[in-house]
């Protein structure tokens, strides 16, 4: 292992031993003794080219009571993505690993410290009520017990709760998200956005001044050439897939990425900025989607709230959901956002910012920002679909293309 600070970063699954897991859990469970670790192997889902996610169970005792924890270790060897995404520089890969590490270590505790009771979840199982279990301080993302990056060894690790053992899963086979699945996802985004706004107002300074690692729109300019090439490749693929859409192809070719992605003076929040299906885990109660958590926080960004929402719609839904259910989904997001922000008389907030953000303003911003989501769709290198054609046609009717 390579030592970083006080806890080592494992180089492989073989390094996930009882003594190491005990170190990792000590902060949340003082006095814990881990006697055995059962490493179950890789459970990576989705693309899987960035990290190896290793599931393991840890068994031990605390306060004289037997304990069992279902966890995952997210191990990233920087060499892996460098062999697949060669167009992205080494420094980029190292930086995004640092971003996720600092998001879990610094931002999450601060965000949860400004949460009000109405945003707190009730225990979801008898096990969560156990006095030996640390309180769940993670709403929109999994609980993380340890996160560290070591550029010298080109390794990074995050140890988190195993969401799969709690019934969460990623949408299979790239299928589009339904209206019902979108509801808990936008609720998770609303919690993220609302808590970050509360935190910013309490601190009295913009989040990028508090967290220097947050990506801003100006940071995107450093990879603009790569994004431009991806855009051109997507347009070629789109033209080949839909030769009868010459007008749309011409419009897509004329898009000015720098103008679309330029910064503006609108109110900003902490955004996930990678709201792609592989980064969203959903839990169902029977056939009903009941909860969602966002994973993979390597590109956490300071941007307008609709940045996340347009990515979510343009990259993950069908035309039917985009066209027919958009207003209902946005209304649910707006309701959850206001619920997270709290009442006007809250001791932290004053009636300003997102508290005065109306649903009609949200809908207007969503339409205006749809090109952001479209550009993100270009970077995913996913095949153009008939649903996407219809979405682009509607965006064109709005006068944006």
UniProtKB/TrEMBL annotation:
**Could you tell me what this protein is called?**
Uncharacterized protein LOC118431040 isoform X1
Gene from which the chain derives: LOC118431040
Range of residues in the leader sequence: none
Q: Which residues form the CHK kinase-like domain?
A: 158-343
Which species does this protein come from?
A: Branchiostoma floridae (Florida lancelet)
Upper lineage: Eukaryota, Metazoa, Chordata, Cephalochordata, Leptocardii
- Give the top-rank taxon of the lineage listed in the UniProt record for this protein: Eukaryota
Q: Which InterPro entries match?
A: CHK_kinase-like (IPR015897), EcKL (IPR004119), Kinase-like_dom_sf (IPR011009)
* Cross-referenced SMART domains: CHK
């Amino acid at each position: 292992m390579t030592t970083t600070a006080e806890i080592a970063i494992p180089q492989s699954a073989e390094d996930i031993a009882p003594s190491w897991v005990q170190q990792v859990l000590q902060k949340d469970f003082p006095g814990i003794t881990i006697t055995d670790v059962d490493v179950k192997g890789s459970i990576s889902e989705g693309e899987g080219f960035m990290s190896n996610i290793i599931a393991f169970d840890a068994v031990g005792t605390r306060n004289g009571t037997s304990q069992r924890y279902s966890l995952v270790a997210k191990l990233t060897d920087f060499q892996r993505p460098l062999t697949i995404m060669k167009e992205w520089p080494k420094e980029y890969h190292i930086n995004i690993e640092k971003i996720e590490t600092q998001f879990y270590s610094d931002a999450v505790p601060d965000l949860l410290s400004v949460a009000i009771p109405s945003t707190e979840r009730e225990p979801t199982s008898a096990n969560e009520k156990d006095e030996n279990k640390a309180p769940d301080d993670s709403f929109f993302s999994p609980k993380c017990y340890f996160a560290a990056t070591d550029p010298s060894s080109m390794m990074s690790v995050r140890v988190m709760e195993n969401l799969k053992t709690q019934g969460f899963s990623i949408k299979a086979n790239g299928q589009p998200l339904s209206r019902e699945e979108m509801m808990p996802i936008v609720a998770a985004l609303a919690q993220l956005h609302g808590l970050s706004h509360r935190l910013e107002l309490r601190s009295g300074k913009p989040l990028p001044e508090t967290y220097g690692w947050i990506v801003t729109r100006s940071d995107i300019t450093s990879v603009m050439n790569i994004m431009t090439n991806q855009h051109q490749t997507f347009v070629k693929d789109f033209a080949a897939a839909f030769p009868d859409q010459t007008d749309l192809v011409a419009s897509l070719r004329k898009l000015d990425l720098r103008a679309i992605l330029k910064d503006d003076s609108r109110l900003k929040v902490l955004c996930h900025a990678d709201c792609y299906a592989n980064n969203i885990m959903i839990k169902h109660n029977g056939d009903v989607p009941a909860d969602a958590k966002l994973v993979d926080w390597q590109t956490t960004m300071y941007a307008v709230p609709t940045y996340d929402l347009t990515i979510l719609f343009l990259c993950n839904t069908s035309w039917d959901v985009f066209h027919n259910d958009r207003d209902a989904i946005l209304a649910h997001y707006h309701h959850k956002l206001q619920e997270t922000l709290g009442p006007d008389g809250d001791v932290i907030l004053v009636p300003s910012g997102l508290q005065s953000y109306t649903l009609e303003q949200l809908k207007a911003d969503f339409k205006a920002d749809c090109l952001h989501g479209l550009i993100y769709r270009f970077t995913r290198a996913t095949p153009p679909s008939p649903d996407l054609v219809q979405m682009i046609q509607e965006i064109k009717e709005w006068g944006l293309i």
